Amino acid sequence: MHKRFSKHLIWAALFSFVPYSMVQAENIPAAQQVGATESAAPQESSAENQPALISDGKNWYFSWGYSRQYYKPSDIHVTQPGLGNNFTVHQAKATDFHTNIPETLDSIAKFNFFAPQENIRIGRFMDAEKTFAIEFSLDHSKYNTNIGQTALVTGTKNNLPINQNMVLDKQSFDYALHNGLNHIMLNAVWLHHLYGPKQKPGDLESISRVGAGILLPHAVNTIDGNKNQVGPKWVNSCCLSSDDWWQLNGWTVGVEVGVRYRLTQSVYLEATLKEAYGELRKVPVYQGTADQVIWMTEGVLSVGYLF
User: Which fold has domain 60-306?
Assistant: First the structure.
């Protein structure tokens, strides 16, 4: 009797516990869901109330700038088989061909953007924070060997050996890359916030570039009284024929650092310093070609627009 009562009591306890457990099992997820919803709601609300770090759009930018170039002395190797010339002008010094401010403004007013030493940048940001971009750049730099300098010339001239100093004048050796020594590059660009409100007027950022590309010069030179000849500027313009105005004559790499300051939501000023290395091959001269390695230091001041 006692055992039978104990069994009934155990079964009653079990049957009373099972419905309670089922109710609890149904209620716990519901409570958790309510708790999760309640905890998520403030997060969504706080996220909505936070101001956006960047404005919608404005993923592209364009800039136009003015520049000065400074060149390290370099060796220029000239080959003119028909004239019996195969010589090197050692450590030739060169300068740029800058225009003054009135001439630059006059060129801009006449929409002649290739008269001064101008610099063009077109880029697109690749991240939402606008700290990394891919960019196309054109540095329309200019190069002139200094007239009146004395340089060592070695090799062969007129089929005769030569190893002596020469004064480089407008007839003996006047070597220029005008219109110009064009560095055309694809760059990786990084920006870092320094001061002021981010992505707003007053924002000051550091900017750095690393890039590589081609050299597309227009050669103008006179060697021993013989001037090189190329075709008309807008007829045979580019890029592989010996008669083209611009010719693909080499490659270049460079790095650039500076600062960018935002004047308005869309307009900015940029000041940078660039160091570039280039190798020129088969630059046209009279009845021959010239080879050269160039180190260029360049200062650039630009105005840009975000869109």
Answer: Porin (2.40.160)
Distances, alpha carbon 66 to alpha carbons 69, 102, 140, 271, in Å = 10, 13, 9, 10
Domain boundaries, the chain: 1-50, 60-306
Q: What does the alpha-carbon distance between residue 164 and residue 171 come to, in Å, rounded to a whole number?
A: 17
- Cα atoms in the Cβ-side hemisphere of radius 13 Å centred on 302: 29
- Tell me which residue of 307, 213, 198 sits closest to 260, measured CA to CA: 198
CA atoms of 22 and 16, how far apart (whole Å): 11
Round to whole Å and give the CA distance between 293 and 286. 20
Please give the share of the chain, as a percent, with pLDDT higher than 70. 77
For the chain, first and last CA: distance in Å? 93
Residue 274 has pLDDT above 60, yes or no: yes
Report how far residue 117's alpha carbon sits from residue 299's, in angstroms, rounded to the nearest whole number. Answer: 11
Tell me what pLDDT residue 251 has. 97
pLDDT at 145: 96
Whole-number pLDDT of residue 300: 96
pLDDT of 34 over the 50 cut: no
pLDDT of residue 204: 98
3-state SS assignment for residue 15? helix
pLDDT at 159: 96
Q: What is the pTM of this model?
A: 0.76
Taking alpha carbons only, the member of 69, 100, 276, 301 closest to residue 176 is 69
3-state secondary structure at position 304: strand
**Is the distance from CB of 240 to CB of 206 less than 8 angstroms?**
no
What does the chain come to in residues?
A: 307
What integer pLDDT is reported at residue 173 of this predicted model? 97
SS3 call for 41: helix
Q: What is the pLDDT of residue 112?
A: 66
- Asked whether 254 and 275 are in contact (CB, 8 A), the reply is yes
Pair of tokens at residue 31: 């409570």
Q: DSSP character for 82?
A: G
